[in-house]
Design brief:
Elements lengths: L2 H29 L6 H19 L6 H26 L7 H20 L3 H26 L5 H27 L12 H46 L3 E6 L5 E4 L1 H7 L3 H4 L4 H4 L5 H12 L4 E9 L5 E13 L2 E10 L1 H18 L2 H7 L9 E2 H18 L3 E8 L2 H8 L1 H18 L5 E6 L2 E7 L3 H17 L2 E4 L2 E3 L3 E7 L6 H17 L5 E3 L2
Parallel strand pairs: 6-8, 12-13
Antiparallel strand pairs: 1-2, 1-5, 3-4, 4-5, 7-9, 7-12, 8-9, 10-11
């Protein structure tokens, strides 16, 4: 091939690199919030394109720009691609060796350009540099990428292997080939063929990178679908997926079958109103109206009907999700029928106790100062809630609260003022809890709170709300003196079949950890 052929190939390469850069930009725009490193690939293609432009301008611009700078940009672009690959797979490593490689490369290329001008020596230096970099690509893909990711990298690995083979051939040609001429644009058919091969590998690399990103997207989507499927079907609540437009049921979980008594096949394709799930049709209409305003529905206590007509009291939550472009309602019902029945029995027991003053003194379950339940009732209620949590595989969270520096406050201002602090804390706790939660004065300045059907994360939110709300309370134990008190709160998530003594001990340990770490905070296991 003559010099015109080489210029034509370089011109086509510049156009191809620009197109590949645009592909990389589009890939980055679509997936930058999911994966890191793709901006480096833009940098790789852009540097290669700019380097070729400088090479074409040889004779118009200084040699140190068209030769040394241009070829350094080629090496730098290849290294940038490697760094992008590391970040894409979240395996970022040190790059000192590559920075040193660039420095050595600049020195060697400067020597072969100005001290001992030799085109073929420069080609050898470039080929060795590129071979070192693409061997790093292969080593990273073979040994540092997890086995689970191997299906994503097959095509990229093949292309990187192709780059290695091409550079090995180019190095071998230096030692066995006949070298004539000193101008790259007139360097002959072999170098033109090498450039064409680089162009083909560039196209294949771009394609393989796009393919790799798309495969990883599909892998993550599959993982998300699997997590949703498992969470949907293993949840202890009755979960339904219905079309917003007409209320047709498109999916239900095993919790729905267990709570309502309907088989899955009985409800799919039918409307919720036809099933008679809602005891009051107006309740459903109000929920749909709320959801149509793009608002979530959370924790509504409503009455529902099982297949056999039995009433169920449930906490209803719902929100709108879009599936295949159509709005659906994802709703859940937590069965609290037994809890409501137990609460009714407890209220009846309280009324019965109040009817006899002597019996009330002996069996009282309410603390007279804070009007919270006392420690005696705490053990009874906690045992009942843990038994229910084990039976229905529901989450349960226990909070342990303790006033910070309360002894100092009592010693300074007296027990009357101290009792006011305890009473105020009891009011704050009541204000921050749901109807289904229960609070107790455990003893002295210690309080406990039982949060049924509550995860550790939701329990932490409740604990933080109590801590911040109480911190806002002000006390005036002496003229012209205002005091703000704080609490330390330990949180423990109930473990399946765990004894209540162990649960209480863990909550107590986390509470004392707060004390040791500065007080006025919420502590729980990681």
């Amino acid at each position: 091939m003559n010099s015109l052929d080489m210029r034509t190939v370089i011109f086509l390469s510049i156009i191809t690199y620009i197109i590949c850069t645009l592909f990389a930009v589009q890939l980055w725009r679509q997936s930058r919030n999911r994966f890191a490193g793709m901006a480096f690939w833009i940098f790789t293609f852009a540097l290669q394109a700019a380097a070729l432009v400088l090479i074409v301008l040889r004779g118009v611009i200084p040699d140190w720009v068209s030769i040394v700078v241009a070829n350094t940009m080629i090496i730098g672009g290849a290294i940038a691609g490697y760094m992008g690959l590391e970040r894409f797979f979240e395996k970022k490593g040190p790059q000192v060796h590559n920075y040193l490689l660039v420095v050595l490369y600049i020195g060697a290329y400067t020597y072969a350009t100005f001290v001992h001008p030799d085109l073929h020596l420069r080609i050898l230096i470039l080929s060795v540099g590129m071979l070192i970099i693409f061997l790093q690509y292969l080593w990273f893909l073979w040994y540092r990428v997890e086995a689970a990711m191997r299906p994503l990298i097959f095509d990229v690995t093949l292309v990187c292997g192709g780059y290695c083979v091409l550079n090995i051939v180019r190095i071998a040609e230096y030692f066995i080939g006949a070298h004539a001429g000193g101008e790259y644009l007139q360097s002959g058919a072999f170098q033109t063929l090498v450039l064409v091969s680089y162009l083909i590998l560039l196209i294949l690399l771009t394609y393989s990178l796009v393919l790799m990103v798309n495969k990883r997207l599909l892998m993550e989507i599959g993982a998300q679908e699997e997590k949703f499927f498992k969470a949907f079907h293993s949840a202890p609540y009755a979960i339904t997926l219905t079309r917003l437009s007409d209320g047709t049921v498109t999916d239900v979980n095993e919790g729905f079958v267990a709570i309502t008594g309907y088989d899955r096949a009985e409800v799919l394709g039918r409307k919720t109103m036809d099933l008679g799930l809602w005891e009051d049709r107006e309740d459903r209409a109000a929920v749909i109206q709320t959801l149509s305003k793009a608002e979530k529905v959370k924790g509504l206590e409503r009455c529902f009907r099982k297949k056999n007509g039995e009433a169920v009291t449930g906490l209803f939550s719902a929100e709108i999700i879009v599936i295949n472009g159509e709005q659906h309602v994802l709703s859940s019902i937590a069965d609290i029928t037994e809890r409501k029945r137990a609460e009714s029995q407890r209220e009846a027991a309280i009324e019965a106790l109040k009817s006899s003053e002597s019996r009330y003194r002996e069996l009282s379950i309410v603390d007279g100062l804070t009007q919270l339940y006392n420690s005696r009732h705490f053990y009874v209620q906690l045992k009942m809630e843990t038994d229910r949590a084990n039976r229905y595989k529901q989450p349960l969270t226990l909070l342990m609260l303790d006033l910070d520096n309360f002894k100092v406050f009592n010693d300074t201002y007296g027990h009357v003022e101290g009792d006011q602090v305890l009473s105020r804390l009891g009011l704050v706790v009541k204000r921050c809890l749901r109807e289904t939660d229960s609070a107790y004065r455990y003893g002295g300045e210690e309080f406990t709170i039982v949060l049924p059907m509550t995860t550790k994360e939701a329990g932490a939110v409740t604990a933080e709300r109590i801590r911040t709300e109480f911190k806002k309370e002000s006390f005036v134990p002496a003229p012209d003196e205002e005091v703000h008190m704080t609490v330390s709160i330990g949180l423990a998530q109930h473990k399946p079949q765990e004894e209540i003594k162990s649960l209480i001990k863990r909550a107590d340990q986390f509470m004392y950890r707060c004390k040791e770490n500065g007080k006025d905070r919420v502590c729980c296991e990681p």
